[in-house]
Amino acid sequence: GQQVMQIPQYQHVQEGEDFTTYCNSSTTLSNIQWYKQRPGGHPVFLIQLVKSGEVKKQKRLTFQFGEAKKNSSLHITATQTTDVGTYFCAGDSTSGTYKYIFGTGTRLKVLA
Amino acid sequence: DGGITQSPKYLFRKEGQNVTLSCEQNLNHDAMYWYRQDPGQGLRLIYYSQIVNDFQKGDIAEGYSVSREKKESFPLTVTSAQKNPTAFYLCASSLPFGRVNQPQHFGDGTRLSIL
C-alpha cells in the first residue's frame, strides 16, 4: 500500500539554526499538506501544495513540492523556541481514494 | 466560533467493555475522519466519511465501528475486539474531496487508556 515516510525522525537544533524535514511518498501524489502538532496538542494545518515544483513561503517557513510529485520538504530558517513540535506531511493519493496518508512525522526540539 | 469538539478528553476502558468517543463539528464540513496516534508516532486512519450515511474503512479499522447519521456528528466506538486500544484518538473534518483546498481541522483529541 501507499506509504509516506519522513526524515529525520527527530532533530535537535540550537535556537537560530536552520531545520529541514523531508517527506517521501511511495506513489505519486495529487497534492500534499503540512501540519504542525505542538506537544500535547492536535495537528494544525500549515499549508497545501498542489503543483509540481511548487514553492511556498510563510515567514521563516519554506515548503517545496517535488517535480515528480513524490516528495516534499519543509525548511525553517533561524528556528525559534516557538517552532518546537512535530511536523507531519500528508499526501493525497492520485488513486482517488479520498483520504490522506500521514507521514511518520519529524519531532523538532529547539534549544535556547 | 466554528470548530470540532471531541469528548471526553480522557477515557478509561475496562476489559471487555465497548466505549464511544464523541466528535461534533459545526464547520458544515461533509468529510470527517478518525485517526489513532500512538506515542511518538504518526496518525493512522481508522475510518472516514465523505457524506452522511456513508463511511469507509481506513488502514486500521479492525476493532472499531462508526456511524454517520448526521452531518455534524461522527462517533467512534472502540469495541472489546480492539485488544490494544490505549492511544490518542483524533477526529478531523474537511470540505469534500474534489475542491482545490481541503485542510483538515482537528479536535483536541481523546486519550483512551485501559484500566
Average pLDDT taken over every residue of chain B: 92
The overall strand count of chain B is 11
Total of helices of chain B: 0
Number of helical regions of chain A: 0
Largest sheet geometry of chain B: 7 strands, mixed
Which structural class matches the secondary elements of chain A? mainly beta
Order of helices and strands of chain B: EEEEEEEEEEE
Written description of the protein model:
The complex is a heterodimer of chains A (112) and B (115). Helices cover 0% and strands 58% of the residues of chain A. Chain A has 112 residues and is mostly beta strands. In chain A, strands 2, 4, 5, 9, 10 and 11 form a six-stranded mixed beta sheet that branches. Chain A has a five-stranded antiparallel beta sheet with strand order 1-3-8-7-6, with no helix packed on it. Chain A is globular. Chain A starts with a strand and ends with a strand. In chain A, 38% of the residues are buried. The model of chain A has no long low-confidence stretch (mean pLDDT 93). The N and C termini of chain B lie far apart (35 Å). In chain B, strand 4 and strand 5 form a beta hairpin. Chain B is mostly beta strands and 115 residues long. In chain B, the strands form two sheets. In chain B, strands 2, 4, 5, 6, 9, 10 and 11 form a seven-stranded mixed beta sheet that branches. The mean pLDDT of chain B is 92. Chain B contains no helices and eleven strands. At the A-B interface, strand 5, strand 9 and strand 10 of A face strand 4, strand 5 and strand 10 of B.
Key traits:
heterodimer, A: about 110 residues, mainly beta, 6-stranded mixed β-sheet, 5-stranded antiparallel β-sheet, B: about 120 residues, 7-stranded mixed β-sheet, 4-stranded antiparallel β-sheet, 11 strands
